[in-house]
Amino acid sequence: MKNRFVTIFSMVILLSCTNKPLQISSPDQTVGIGFSLVDGQPKYAVTKNNKPVIEPSSLGFKILQQTNQINRYKVLSSEIHSVDKPWEQPWGEFRVVNDNHNELIVHLMETGANKSLLDIQFRVFNDGVSFRYSFPEQNTLDSVIILDELTQFTFPEDQNVWWIPVHSENSYYESLYRKNRISETDTINTPATFETKDGLFLSIHEANLTDFASMTLRKTDTCQYTSELVPWSNGVKVYAKTPFVSPWRTLIIAEKPGDLVTSTLMLNLNDSCKLEDVSWIQPSKYIGIWWGMHLEKYTWGQGSKHGATTELTKNYIGFASENGFNGVLVEGWNEGWDGDWSKEGNKFSFTKSYPDFDLEEITSYAVMKNVRLIGHHETGGAATNYENQLEDAFALYHKYGVNAVKTGYVNKYLDGTEWHDSQYGVRHYRKVIETAAKYHIMIDNHEPVKGTGLQRTYPNLMTQEGGRGQEYDAWSSDGGNLPSHTVTLPFTRMLAGPFDFTPGTFNFNYSVREGTRVNTTLAKQLALFVVIYSPQQMASDLPENYVNQPAFQFIRDVAVDWEKTVVTDGQIGQYITVARQQRNSDNWFVGSITNENPRTLTLIFDFLDAGKTYEAIIYKDTDESDWKKNPTAITIEKMKITKDSKINIYLASGGGAAISLIPDGHKFPQ
Ligand code: NOJ
Q1: Closest C-alpha to 650, from 602, 590, 589
Q2: Residue 377: what are its φ and ψ, rounded to 5°?
Q3: For the chain, which terminus, N or C, has the lower number of CB atoms within 10 Å?
Q4: Whole-structure pTM over 0.85, yes or no?
Q5: CA dist list (Å): 670 to 44, 285, 287, 320, 664
Q6: Is 308 part of a structural domain of the chain?
């Protein structure tokens, strides 16, 4: 990396009150962004290959303290910079990410009585564009109350969008994606993914959501959305104090759907790592006393079916140790679960365990077995109750060697009134991540605010939920996740970062709710370990369901941390094939999955090293496999593969294939 060419090129242009458009292009010249003032109002437009992708669209905010509600500005000056700088991630889908962009900063002054200052910062990458607002320190604007954001995204025409609703189904993005024309939607969440008439794929989202409200998109015209910030309960969107910056508004532009998946735009727009020592942060595979609760075999609360007992936890630790898992998650160990816990979050104690759960005995046993207990903090949305105990809660876990905690916020609101994705929620989640880092604790955050790439700055934020995970296949009244759900997620939800989806079902024969089940084949369950990225990856089924199952070997072998990632093929909502190289290794893992349509895919391996032969272990559907009628039918086959190999693989309805590739003479690390 040291001898990589690094360019930082800067230029300052002084302009006085000009309407002349300012433009920059991506380093490869294919993506362009232009800024102009139209009647004093800031506007931007985006092109790909010289064709419009975003038509001239408004920029700005409605701010309580400003003289005009619709602000008119003049340009004071502008700057152009170029950056080409690789950086390394402590964990991730890529070890090295290259930050290669051109930047335009436009310095504006309001023409009203206040003369307030606003900078708009644009960055153009080969994989898309971004911009953010920066309010400098200034005499006439100190405390700021943002009433609305005015940023528009105006498309040249009506087009397909894959989207989920805002707050109407739940507060934490746990919806099935829909595909509609823009004109048929209303207010939608980000990431929102679009397909243009010219065959481009776009995704609107945000990066580095810090002390601000999340952006949702309100349809304001047939082919236009306007940013709709999630409000506080009093209607205010954001409280700020100059100087401050907004999150980045991002638009990935891809020529094929798979390029959305491998875009690093969001990560590049976050601040570099703030933690000095990251040696304690390690990706892991885990199991948990968890699915048993969702299947109603165990309970979170006390009683004859209490899951979090010392005895059961030690059994799980034993199983984890024998099968190469690093951790055991235990839910329901602490006081507060008896009764209606999702409505009575204030009753949770994060330091007092139930009498049948001996934290000291369990963690000493875990040390002997070289496994870690994974902690759990369900708050029932009572964020303040949690914050009041935060230091003690993390200190307790730290004392017992617990270095990862799953958090949860099951409630429509935080503290009874505030949205999870409001500025209130954003502040709370950040406090948890920062406090956890102090105690060397990694976080897996359920019911979160959406991911915006913060794991670059705080790599102890390992993974999040923020999507419809596999738990819905236990109890959801709609029958569980459709087979198309997991072939839509890589192009939508996954653009917000790692997802603790929890694949790994081997036993499909359970019944919590008539008609609800994991709607895949067994081979697809394996493939999901590669397709749905999470650096903490849970094998979700009960340990007893893994015993004597040859297919379990894939879960034992599969890696969780990657040197690089390649999407060889994919269509949104239909199928995808992802290949990932294990970090510090020559091993590769491949996952292919399909929706309800069976299909035969031709897999290519051009990502492999030339001149090497790999042994492939292929876990795939049989001719009889079918997610409804025969989910467990699987065949395991070995063959030699090289860079030039091409193989046809049959994926059954709701099916998939998982492949481990080891260079000849190598072994999987255990
Ligand atoms: C919802 C989470 O997604 C799930 O994983 C957890 O088991 C329950 N909340 C209880 O905390």
Answers
A1: 602
A2: -125, 90
A3: C
A4: yes
A5: 52, 11, 16, 12, 17
A6: no
pLDDT of residue 1: 34
- The answer to whether position 98 is within a domain reads yes
DSSP string, 13-55: EE-SS----EEEE-TTSSEEEEEEEETTEEEEEEEETTEEEEE
Quote the domain boundaries for residue 60.
7-268
Domain count of the fold of the chain:
1
In whole angstroms, give the CA distance from residue 94 to residue 88: 8
The answer to whether the bond into 669 is cis (omega within 30° of 0) is no
**Are the beta carbons of 147 and 237 closer than 8 angstroms?**
yes
How many CB atoms lie under 10 A from the CB of residue 560?
22
| 2 Cβ contact list (under 8 Å, min separation 6) | none
Q: How far is the CA of 126 from the centre of ligand 1 (A)?
A: 39
Give the residue carrying structure tokens 């935060």: 390
* Cα angle value 521/315/526 (rounded, 5°): 20
Q: Which atom of ligand 1 is nearest to the CA of 378?
A: 11
Query: Residue 23: is it exposed, middle or buried by C-beta count within 10 angstroms (0-12/13-18/19+)?
Result: middle
Tell me, in angstroms, the distance from the centre of ligand 1 to residue 17's CA: 55
Query: Best mutation site among 293, 299, 376, 410 for ligand 1, i.e. most ligand atoms within 8 A of its Cβ?
Result: 410
Residues of the chain below pLDDT 70? 1-20, 66-70, 668-670
Q: Which residues contact 61 (CB under 8 A, 6 or more apart)?
A: 133, 146, 147, 148, 149, 150
Contact, 639 vs 620, CB < 8 A? Answer: no
Report whether residue 500 contacts ligand 1, using a CB cutoff of 6 Å. no
- Dihedral of the CA atoms 343, 349, 355, 361 (nearest 10)? 130
471 is catalytic: yes
With a 6 A CB cut-off, is 621 part of the ligand 1 pocket?
no
State residue 65's pLDDT score. Answer: 75
CATH number at residue 32: 2.70.98.10
The answer to whether position 136 is within a domain reads: yes
Among 171, 299, 331, 338, name the best residue to mutate to test ligand 1's pocket (greatest count of ligand atoms within 8 A of Cβ). Answer: 331
Q: Is residue 85 part of a domain?
A: yes
Q: Of the listed 471, 563, 615, 624, which one is catalytic? A: 471
Listing DSSP states for 581-644 in one string gives EETTSS-EEEEEEE-SS-EEEEEE-TTSPTT--EEEEEEEE-TT-BTTTBTT-EEEEEEEE-TT
- Closest-lying ligand 1 atom to the alpha carbon of residue 408: 11
Residue 187 token pair: 């207010």
- Listed in sequence order, the DSSP H helices in 198-251 are none
| Burial (CB count <10 Å: 0-12, 13-18, 19+), residue 611 | exposed
